[in-house]
What we know:
Elements lengths: L1 E5 L8 H15 L3 E5 L27 H13 L2 H14 L3 E4 L9 H8 L4 E4 L13 E2 L2 E2 L9 H5 L7 H16 L6 E6 L2 H9 L7 E3 L18 E5 L8 H9 L2 H5 L1 E5 L5 H10 L5 E5 L3 H9 L3 E4 L9 H8 L3 E5 L4 H4 L6 E4 L4 H13 L1 H18 L2 H17 L14
Helix pairs in contact: 3-4, 8-14, 12-15, 14-15
Amino acid sequence: xxxxxxxxxxxxxxxxxxxxxxxxxxxxxxxxxxxxxxxxxxxxxxxxxxxxxxxxxxxxxxxxxxxxxxxxxxxxxxxxxxxxxxxxxxxxxxxxxxxxxxxxxxxxxxxxxxxxxxxxxxxxxxxxxxxxxxxxxxxxxxxxxxxxxxxxxxxxxxxxxxxxxxxxxxxxxxxxxxxxxxxxxxxxxxxxxxxxxxxxxxxxxxxxxxxxxxxxxxxxxxxxxxxxxxxxxxxxxxxxxxxxxxxxxxxxxxxxxxxxxxxxxxxxxxxxxxxxxxxxxxxxxxxxxxxxxxxxxxxxxxxxxxxxxxxxxxxxxxxxxxxxxxxxxxxxxxxxxxxxxxxxxxxxxxxxxxxxxxxxxxxxxxxxxxxxxxxxxxxxxxxxxxxxxxxxxxxxxxxxxxxxxxxxxxxxxxxxxxxxxxx
Length: 423
């Protein structure tokens, strides 16, 4: 089968890109021809298809002046260049099916119309909530949010949801209204939800249940079961943003004698780091060490030496690979009971679950594993077994091919907008 895979970035940037490249490798291992489509970037991996990639567009706060900002806004709404480039790619390569990942903004769903025009069925993995939320996250003003349900995207402007900017929020709200009104996503036969929670949420917001399927993420666990860590520290690895719950984690550590006596390593960086470091100074948390951003290779030995991992998010996490990576390496995970996290951690078996934002409950979970390290190690062994059984590459491949075959066999899909969903 010849499969076109589209994602706006073609270098390792985040979880969506990890899934994108892992899926490409998995498909090629099974003999399929995979054709990439992405945005040009100096950081991109080499590919003979780069000449088909549309030009880079800068969406950063300081990028391009007023002219650049207007160009970026226009491309968010509709990209003529991406439309023309993918048209040429399709004509030259003739794919059987297209698998879309994160195409918003830099590529735009303009490419879906071209696929439909060439009768190339498309499936799309939902790595976040962009299909129903202008800001991707269903989170604003310090809490989870559902104000835009029922096409009320003007709420994003009223609450300055995008970078606390009315202008940026207005562009994203306009994008949602335009893409919905024009049925831009009607060419997608099936949407893939990596978590049952996301599947239920997009259906709640109006997506036709017939158009969305659950296929969990996967991870290559490796041939050897890793040895349990020595238990000298516990670990948080991820972005340092308020939604990730690291403030709650530090509050829990500050209130726990056991956690104060152990070392907490924080791997990652982000806009919340100054606040977190100031809190550690004020609470005299000398046992907390900030490692900054680590590459995957740099993170490996840090993860290997941890007793357990903490995922304290306070937004609707979809299906974070960091949890699967920890489990694959035999680590128990202490996770908040929100979004898709409870689907990856079996409470009392492969880790512990606590209410999001509840520092006291999180502190209790930390105490439990720090005071009983043998229990943490046993949970880690069970977590590894769960990955091998439920989140293996081979199982994912079978599920993904079933989705492709269903998309290839199906009749033309109804407009997504008819089911009440906009971009």
